[in-house]
Amino acid sequence: MATLEIKDLHAEVDTEEEGSKEILTGVNLTVRSGEIHAFMGPNGSGKSTLAYAVAGHPKYRVTSGSVLLDGEEVLEMSVDERARAGLFLAMQYPVEVPGVSMSNFLRSAATATRGEAPQVRHWVKEVKQAMSDLEIDESFSERSVNEGFSGGEKKRHEILQLDLLKPKFAILDETDSGLDVDALRVVSDGINRYTESGDKGVLLITHYTRILKHIKPDYVHVFVKGQVAESGGPELADELEESGYVRFTGKKEAAAQS
Amino acid sequence: MTESTLETSGRNGLDESGAQNSAVPPRSSRGHRFTSYDVRAFEVPGGREEDWRFTPMKRLRGLHDGSASATGSLEVEVTGDSAAKVETVDRSDERLGTAGAPADRIAAQAWSSFTEATVVTIPKDTQAAEPVTVTVHGPGQDRTAYGHLQVRAEPLSEAVVVLDYRGSGIIGDNVEMIAEDSARLSVITIHDFADDATQVSSEHVHLGKDAVFRHFAVSLGGDLVRVNTKVTFGDRGGDADLLGVYFADSGQHLEHRLLMDHAQPNCRSNVTYKGALQGDSARSVWIGDVLIQARAEGTETFELNRNLVLTEGARADSVPNLEIETGEIAGAGHASAIGRFDDEQLFYLQARGIPYDQARRLVVRGFFGEILQKITVDEVRERLEAAIDKELAAAGE
């Protein structure tokens, strides 16, 4: 049983126009293994910032608060230490790394997070299976990481890494955005396979309720202006689908199907 | 990093991410260049001339102004495939200088100053199965030496030649690489000097009819290394691929100047150079000139230079230049880019648990990968990979 606790987290980012700007204004959230939390909010509310701050992106400066993984302070760890401790961020815009093959990358990542190199024969099988589950063509393993991939292909590969690395906690940053109906199903199935063992925790960041038809959240949080404005069960998502974020922001912004 | 491709006569180096970079359009033709075997025919360069404006003249140690007289000699050792004929000849040998005449004062100084030359010949219709390695040792610290080397692949022959520069000193030399009709010649040149060394080298490449020439230029060591490479075509069907990698550290100046002189129809040239720079005052210069003369119809040419600036304080200059005097070409283009080491790439790899040093290595190896994988001599490729890893480890913290 693992726990990810975010306590009163404040973070800022340097902007060209306004200098440093506080984006996270005191986030409190606890995710335990076995739980799926949908994290919803209007554009610009700071959802992605939360994801990056927890993963340790250098652009986001945490000014106060804490992030504990089983009681250990995550904020004191380097980016790679966080990943090896069991945190995973599926990025909204995965980065291209020219000249580094997907297979080399996956193997390096698995070696790092597992603490030893996976046995070649098992590993090849494992990757093949995971790729076929996500309907990814085998030829992708010899291509450079994310280079020239379509948006949907990048998202599938994020989930491929999730399935192979099996972290304790996954933060999925708008993994559903930009996917067509088929790709959404494939990606959602991948996420459900990951959580199937019952000992994984998921923070599913999304703007729209659409993915919640495939992935059933235990909790739903509404995130506004850098804080959790309200938390509830799946019924909160139903309300957002009906009326959007207007109750939270005063502005009309749809949360239903994109 | 993205690239920009200009389809016509070019100027520039694109500054894509704020790394320092300079770009000035050339004032006059860079393709049609004065050449002479007589050092007195060249004025002593002051440093403002187009050919010299990127070079720190003081660090030439007198190679350019006649003050560096020979005080030592190069030690040349040839090993490898026995099919190659190796000779040491004196200046009077008539084969010397046939690949091209010196195009700047230092090349002419080297031509005027060498006393003996090494000639490596791959005889007609002979395939050398093993690489031929020519190791050139510098004359030693603060000593000056001038050298001359010719590699000649006779018609229908095939060989890989590794030219391995090592050691210390001040070196001016000319290297002729000749691929006669239908020969296939690969030359891997490695400039891996000690920290004190200065080398100014002029490479004269000449291709016969349907000859295939492959060049890998590798610059790693030395205080200042400046290499001029000019490729000329003697007849139709010549095919030249020139690939280069360089890694400039703190205080190093690595300069590569290339000229593809297309004077014959239906020839092809392709230039791809990639460099990484790290540390204060690490400096690289890449000049890529292509001249397509009026009669060179059906020419196909492309040149590309990419630079990866790993730390603040390093500077790369990149100037591609294309002069086209005929409309009947198969294709011509160039691209140049200078990019900063990408924090986003590092973050992505680290976010998957890969430690910082390894992530950095992956990114830089990936950057050089497309070139390194084309080096067919395993030990050379492995040596380069190890050298790059070592460079990264040295400044990884």
From TrEMBL, chain A:
ABC transporter domain segment(s): 4-250
GO molecular function: ATP binding; ATP hydrolysis activity
Gene3D superfamilies: P-loop containing nucleotide triphosphate hydrolases
Family: Belongs to the ABC transporter superfamily. Ycf16 family.
Keyword list, A-Z: ATP-binding, Nucleotide-binding
CDD domains: ABC_FeS_Assembly
UniProt protein name: Fe-S cluster assembly ATP-binding protein
Species of origin: Actinopolyspora xinjiangensis
UniProtKB/TrEMBL annotation, chain B:
Sections of the chain in a coiled coil: none
GO BP terms in the entry: iron-sulfur cluster assembly
A Pfam family recorded for this sequence: SUFBD_core
SUPFAM superfamilies: Stabilizer of iron transporter SufD
InterPro entries for this protein: Fe-S_cluster_assembly_SufBD (IPR055346), SUF_FeS_clus_asmbl_SufBD_core (IPR000825), SUF_FeS_clus_asmbl_SufBD_sf (IPR037284), SUF_FeS_clus_asmbl_SufD (IPR011542)
Biased composition (Polar residues): 1-11
Region of interest (Disordered), ranges: 1-35
Domain of life: Bacteria
Record-annotated SUF system FeS cluster assembly SufBD core domain positions: 141-367
Similarity annotation: Belongs to the iron-sulfur cluster assembly SufBD family.
Cited NCBIfam families: sufD
Protein name: Fe-S cluster assembly protein SufD
UniProt source species: Actinopolyspora xinjiangensis
